[in-house]
Design goal:
Length: 114
């Protein structure tokens, strides 16, 4: 088998696998989020923004006028918790975007026709 033939076989295999993975993900994920709409994503976006703000606000609070004092172990633990909470919800929001982009979630059909 030539390299060209092997390359084409590999490409066809990968395309078939991609198709199957897309179908599987759609079959499992779309029913889990049946009412997808921009309005339904707003609470997630607001939560991510609030968590980001909480994390940054606390970081500024820790760094403001400390007179050469470093954050305590408890303060750093709280900062870490705020960061991890923010990053976890951000990862969920990004995963939602990925699922929408890949067609894993059914989107509402626009009421207006083009």
């Amino acid at each position: 088998m030539t390299q060209d033939t092997t390359g084409r076989s590999k490409s066809r295999f990968m395309m078939s696998m991609e198709h199957v993975l897309r179908e599987i993900n759609h079959e499992i994920i779309s029913p889990a989020i049946p009412d997808m709409s921009v309005e339904n994503t707003v609470p997630l976006m607001i939560t991510v923004a609030r968590l980001r703000a909480d994390y940054l606000k606390y970081a500024f609070q820790l760094s403001g006028d400390r007179s050469d004092r470093h954050p305590t172990e408890d303060e750093l633990a709280k900062l870490k918790h705020l960061r991890e909470t923010y990053q976890e919800m951000l990862a969920a929001a990004r995963e939602l975007e990925h699922c929408i982009d890949r067609g894993y979630i059914d989107l509402p059909i626009s009421a207006t026709k083009s």
